[in-house]
Design goal:
Layout (H helix, E strand, L loop, with lengths): L1 E16 L12 E17 L4 E3 L4 E19 L6 E18 L2 E5 L2 E20 L3 H11 L2 H9 L12 E22 L4 E4 L2 E10 L2 E9 L9 E22 L4 E3 L2 E9 L13 H9 L6 H7 L2 E6 L5 E20 L1
Parallel strand pairs: 1-4, 2-5, 3-6, 4-7, 5-8, 6-9, 7-10, 7-11, 8-12, 9-13, 10-14, 11-15, 12-16
């Protein structure tokens, strides 16, 4: 008997405000919000009322596979940009359970297994106020067309070219919030009677890879350019509560006869190196090095389970702040009574 769940979830919310303020900074603001919410149950059970008699092997498997990404991005890029706020919220719950509660006689091997495999669990929040270098180059290229466009339009109507407006205040605020509860349990029920000629295996396994909560806030400004700002506030807050329970349990009063009995519960949370530990050729190494274009913040994000980064630029006063709080609760239990 096997129960199998596959959960692939990708949520993205991106907003860009490229409007020039022209004396009205409120017209350059905006926000982005993305929420990923999963409530997944994978259950394989043999109830106590069943009476099984077989000469072969018996397996009871519950398997959950997940890949989750939640991403929110807002950029305010016009001249005189004021900025905005971003929230990326992930609420992730899963319960994987394999429970054998019936009597079994005459069988050779019995395997009861509960497995939860997460190949990716990522939450990202990014806010930007003001043009970065790449944005400046893009807008400069677009700007070379404006004189020609204005000349053509002037033949038909009056045209007033847009005048740059500096920012008095610029804000970038990002919040990445994750609440995750992942449970996997394999069990033999109370007072169960098992008579096996071979082996009993009771295992629970959880493995979470590419686990990241990344938050970035950036305020850009030109010190002597056409897109200056007097005051700026950049805040990045990353908060995550992760609860993982992995259990292999034998109930009270269970009677088991087998050549070998194996019980195990394992939780694996490897450090992600962003692919830098995997290559098959020199070209792969080159690609990995090219991905370091955002050094050092991008690299820190690739390697960190949780990362909050804030950057700010202004003519008069810039205030930046980053907060990162991660609570990781891990419970592994193996009980034979």
């Amino acid at each position: 008997l096997q129960a199998h769940s596959q959960n692939t979830l990708t949520v993205e919310s991106e907003a860009t405000n490229g409007h020039d303020a022209e004396g009205k900074q409120a017209t350059t603001t905006g926000f982005a919000f993305a929420m990923a919410n999963t409530g997944l149950t994978t259950s394989a059970k043999v109830n106590s009322g069943a009476l099984l008699n077989t000469r072969g092997d018996v397996s009871l498997l519950a398997l959950t596979e997940q890949a989750i990404r939640n991403k929110a991005v807002f950029k305010s890029l016009g001249n005189g940009a004021a900025g905005g706020a971003v929230l990326a919220l992930s609420v992730l719950n899963s319960n994987t359970q394999a429970a054998f509660n019936a009597n079994l006689s005459g069988a050779r091997h019995l395997d009861v297994s509960a497995t939860n495999l997460i190949s990716r669990q990522q939450n990202e929040a990014t806010s930007q106020a003001g043009k970065g270098l790449a944005d400046f180059l893009k807008f400069r290229a677009i700007g070379t067309v404006d004189p020609i466009k204005n000349y053509v339009l002037s033949k038909f109507k009056d045209v007033n070219p847009t005048q740059p407006t500096d920012s008095k205040f610029r804000l970038a605020a990002s919040l990445g919030l994750v609440v995750s509860d992942q449970q996997a349990e394999a069990s033999i029920g109370q007072s169960t009677q098992l008579n096996l000629s071979g082996n009993l295996g009771l295992t629970a396994l959880q493995e979470i890879r590419e686990l990241h909560n990344l938050v970035n806030s950036t305020v850009n400004g030109s010190k002597r350019g056409s897109d200056q700002n007097d005051y700026s506030l950049s805040m990045a807050v990353a908060i995550a509560t992760l609860n993982q329970g992995t259990r292999a349990l034998v109930g009270d009063g269970a009677q088991i006869s087998a050549q070998r009995i194996g019980l195990g519960a394992q939780y694996i949370q490897p450090l992600s190196l962003g692919g830098f530990d995997r290559w098959s050729s020199l070209s792969d190494i080159g690609k990995n090095m090219m991905s370091l274009g955002g050094w050092p913040s991008d690299l820190a994000g690739k390697f960190s389970t949780q990362y909050a980064d804030s950057q700010g630029t202004s003519d008069e006063l810039a205030i930046t702040g980053s907060i990162s709080v991660l609570t990781n609760l891990i419970e592994n239990i193996v009980t034979g009574k």
